[in-house]
Design a protein that fits this description.
The complex is a heterodimer. Chain A has no helices and 12 strands. By secondary structure, chain A is mostly beta strands. In chain A, strands 2, 5, 6, 10, 11 and 12 form a 6-stranded mixed sheet that branches. A 4-stranded antiparallel sheet of chain A has the order 3-9-8-7, with no helix packed on it. In chain A, a hairpin with a 2-residue loop joins strand 7 and strand 8. Chain A is globular. The termini of chain A are far apart. Chain B is mainly β. In chain B, about 0% of the residues lie in helices and about 45% in strands. Chain B has no helices and 11 strands. In chain B, strands 2, 4, 5, 6, 9, 10 and 11 form a 7-stranded mixed sheet that branches. In chain B, strands 1-3-8-7 form a 4-stranded antiparallel sheet, with no helix packed on it. Chain B is globular and about 40 Å long. Classes of the chains: A mainly beta, B mainly beta. The interface of A and B includes residues 4, 31 and 45 of A.
Chain lengths: ~120, ~120
């Protein structure tokens, strides 16, 4: 069975601070995909990144960076110099094996960036 | 269209009534998915269509839930004899092929269903 754990329910930071959102996953499949989505108050899930299990290279996109560690089954997300517009709920998700189209989501982390 | 469109954006219905939720995917996307998101939770998979057929309906909670996609484009999620526990946001997503790692998904803004 697949499982995604986002231990941080809510985080508040002051604008311009860095913040890391944690994600730990469980799967028995050797081939799997990990995602991060942003859900602003409008409700739409906005795609941020997709990684496959064979690519452990970390990625940076502007103020966003992701740290994939297979040894600890973690896929953490860091926002550098946070901004008020980053306030949203962030979800980590896993798609694995033959059913990789079926995503298993964590419960989400609500990030509030205070001006 | 430019994105995945879901209508209505909000639906309030009385317990026991029948409701239909509509999803219009991105043009050309063959795969379509329905997810349900309860308050404070992540989305949960309901059903996956490839073309007109339901390739995987293992996430549908019971036989009161049914979905169709007769022409391989627009999909309708149907809920019979609604219960208060059905209250949630119903999200639709589409992808160019089978999603997951290969193509990823585009989600709509969802339909917020409230059963009173």
């Amino acid at each position: 069975a697949q499982k995604v754990t986002q231990a941080q329910t809510e985080i508040s930071v002051v604008e311009k601070e860095d913040v890391t959102l944690d994600c730990v996953y469980e799967t028995r499949d050797t081939t799997y995909y990990l995602f991060w989505y942003k859900q602003p108050p409008s409700g739409e899930l906005v795609f941020l990144i997709r990684r496959n299990s064979f690519d452990e290279q970390n990625e940076i996109s502007g103020r966003y960076s992701w740290n994939f560690q297979k040894s600890t089954s973690s896929f953490n997300f860091t926002i550098t110099a946070s901004q008020v517009v980053d306030s949203a709920v962030y979800f980590c998700a896993l798609g694995s094996g033959a059913g990789s189209y079926q995503l298993t989501f964590g419960k989400g982390t609500k990030l509030s960036v205070i001006p | 269209g430019a994105g995945v469109s879901q209508t209505p954006s909000n639906k309030v219905t009385e317990k026991g009534k029948y409701v239909e939720l509509r999803c219009d995917p991105i043009s050309g996307h063959t795969a379509l998915y329905w997810y349900r998101q309860s308050l404070g939770q992540g989305p949960e998979f309901l059903i996956y269509f490839q073309g007109t057929g339901a390739a995987d309906d293992s996430g549908l909670p019971n036989d009161r839930f049914f979905a169709v996609r007769p022409e391989g484009s627009v999909s309708t999620l149907k809920i019979q004899r609604t219960e208060r526990g059905d209250s949630a946001v119903y999200l639709c997503a589409s992808s160019l092929g089978e999603g997951g790692g290969t193509y990823g998904y585009t989600f709509g803004s969802g339909t917020r269903l409230t059963v009173v």
